[in-house]
UniProtKB/TrEMBL annotation:
Name the record gives this protein: Gamma-glutamyl peptidase 5-like
Domain Glutamine amidotransferase: 54-194
Entry's localization field: Cytoplasm, Cytosol
Origin organism lineage: Eukaryota, Viridiplantae, Streptophyta, Embryophyta, Tracheophyta
Annotated family: Belongs to the peptidase C26 family.
Pfam families: GATase (PF00117)
Top-rank taxon: Eukaryota
């Protein structure tokens, strides 16, 4: 099925012990969702300064930018290098899928603005509503116009890059998804997450003092009441990344 294509995960997060043990790291989570037979998948730990060489960029058919605990509006050295890389990938018209932090940094690299979400943290399962134009774009996938998706973020895209198009929104976030030309797409939520990953993250955020104990308890109590539409998101993400839309 893969036809010998080559893809890379640009890993922007540190793997927790739980994620390493359960999934082989976040790289393993993304490969489980996106990889198909015959493909080669590599990982570059960009948050640790590990980037693909300019010479090898052309060997890849597509890239996925992961979530991160860092701010996409920050100016850490690796974040600035990542922005430069994304501009190169844009000039080469490489397929790029940005998830959460990846969605935000992709927007920033293309000329958009990111920052703290006015409504604060968004954690849990959210209904994502596709625009009429994106419904036409995704019509071949035969998926509903509203899908449930796991969210875990406190930053957001505040202003879209020029020529980019909002293709999905939610009650809390105006830019849940955007598309730039035919080769770049951002998703604010986490199609790769499972409920157990979210539960693990809630505990980590609580222990680090990012969210209050009472809020964490409330989130845990609501977890499992609605299931994310993982199969539909997998179909959408793989179809975009492999050029099947």
């Amino acid at each position: 099925m893969g036809g010998g294509k080559r893809f890379a995960v640009l890993l922007c997060a540190e793997d927790s012990d739980y994620i390493k043990k359960r999934y082989g790291g976040y790289y393993g989570v993304f490969v489980e969702m996106l990889a198909e037979e015959g493909e080669t998948w590599d990982v570059f730990r960009v948050a640790n300064g590990e980037f693909p060489d300019d010479k090898e960029i052309g060997d890849f058919d597509g890239f996925v930018i992961t979530g991160s605990c860092n701010d996409a509006h920050g100016n850490d050295v690796w974040i600035c290098r990542l922005i430069a890389l994304l501009n190169k990938l844009d000039s080469l018209k490489k397929k790029v899928l940005g998830i959460c932090f990846g969605h935000q940094i992709l927007s920033r690299a293309l000329g958009g603005k990111t920052g703290r979400a006015i409504s604060g943290w968004d954690i849990g399962i959210r209904a994502i509503h596709f625009s009429s134009s994106s419904s036409k774009l995704f019509s071949s996938l035969k998926i509903p116009t509203t899908l449930s998706l796991i969210e875990c973020h406190r930053d957001e895209v505040r202003e879209l890059p020029p020529k980019a198009e909002v293709i999905a929104r939610s009650e809390k976030t105006g830019v849940e998804m955007f598309r730039y030309a035919d080769h770049m797409m951002g998703i604010q939520g986490h199609p790769e997450y499972t409920n157990d990953i979210l539960l693990h993250l809630i505990d980590r955020l609580m222990m680090r003092g990012f969210i209050a104990d009472s809020y964490a308890d409330e989130l845990k109590a609501n977890l499992g009441k609605v299931e994310p539409d993982k199969d539909a998101w997998k179909k959408l993400c793989t179809s975009f990344l492999k050029g099947r839309l």
